[in-house]
Design a protein that fits this description.
14 helices, mainly alpha, MetI-like fold
Length: 305
């Protein structure tokens, strides 16, 4: 009898502990509820609106006309081509320049002033985009910019011919690269910090020089992180809107500006769903890039703790 009572008491405690464990687990999940609500409202719901609208006509009927126009219209295809080329070029430039800057910081004193200044400046400049960044460049290189007027005064250059470049896709690429470089520093610096000095010493002890170390040790370790950062820079430039909208005043050479035209233009009335089809195309491109990013992260065998 005593044994049965003890068994029943232990079973009751076990069941009570299980219920308390489930309650504690539920409370833990309750902590992420605000984040899940935020993601649902600002990410999944807008995406659902874009996907549904891309397959609806202005009257609300289901149609494939918008998607068909998306893949057959030469102007739209050229806009996607320009957006991808611009994003890839600025991502490469930002990745190379930012990677070299991050490497210079990583090889210095980890507690030095230079590192703190570069990291702090990168954190600020990586978020310095949109209209503010455009105004800064126009105030410096625009038709009435400081350097443009100085060049006209001292060298006799025509300000309207010497400042035209800033209003082109090339100028937009320069502006994009301005925030791509500090963003690369923030993303790539932790990977460089994970390189252990002992690895280079071991390579040197085995007779390997600097090239052998980077070719067979550091390069393979950093490659997934570098390519992943490059993909993130590509997505950052591909999805940017405010900077291009404030800088480019003529034509819609890239996709975000064409979406604006379809949604808000007074000339192309009733084409909002076509704009959603363009947005769906951007979502597909970003989804492909982020899938590659996730695969790279999973395939990386080096996880230095």
């Amino acid at each position: 009898m005593a044994g049965s009572a003890a068994l029943a008491s232990a079973t009751g405690r076990s069941r009570g502990g299980g219920r308390r464990g489930r309650v504690r687990g539920g409370l833990r999940y309750l902590g992420v509820t605000p984040f899940l609500v935020y993601v649902a409202i600002w990410l999944f719901w807008p995406t659902a609106i874009v996907v549904v609208g891309a397959f609806r006509s202005d009257s609300g009927r289901l149609t494939l006309a918008n998607v068909s126009t998306l893949v057959h219209n030469a102007t739209i295809l050229n806009a996607f081509k320009a957006s991808i080329e611009l994003s890839l070029a600025t991502a490469l430039a930002g990745a190379v320049a930012g990677g070299l800057l991050a490497w210079a910081v990583a090889t210095g004193n980890p507690r030095g002033v230079l590192r703190r200044v570069v990291v702090a400046a990168s954190g600020v400049l990586a978020q310095f985009g949109g209209v503010m960044l455009t105004f800064a460049f126009l105030a410096t290189y625009g038709y009435t910019g400081l350097l443009t007027l100085a060049a006209a005064h001292f060298f006799g250059l025509d300000p309207y011919s010497s400042a035209t470049w800033i209003y082109t896709l090339f100028g937009l690429g320069i502006v994009y690269t301005f925030f791509q470089i500090p963003l690369m520093v923030l993303i790539f610096l932790p990977a460089l910090d994970n390189l252990q000095p002992q690895w280079q010493e071991a390579s040197a002890n085995l007779g390997g020089g600097s090239w052998a170390y980077w070719r067979y040790v550091a390069g393979p370790i950093l490659a997934p992180s570098f390519i992943s950062a490059l993909l993130l820079l590509f997505v950052s430039a591909f999805s940017a809107y405010a900077t291009a909208a404030a800088l480019l005043s003529q034509g819609d050479p890239i996709v975000p500006l064409q979406i604006r035209t379809f949604i808000s233009s007074e000339v192309m009335v009733g084409q909002a769903n076509m704009g959603k089809a363009l947005a769906l195309g951007m979502v597909v491109v970003v989804a492909v890039v982020m899938t590659i990013y996730a695969l790279l992260q999973r395939s990386s065998k080096w996880r230095v703790q």
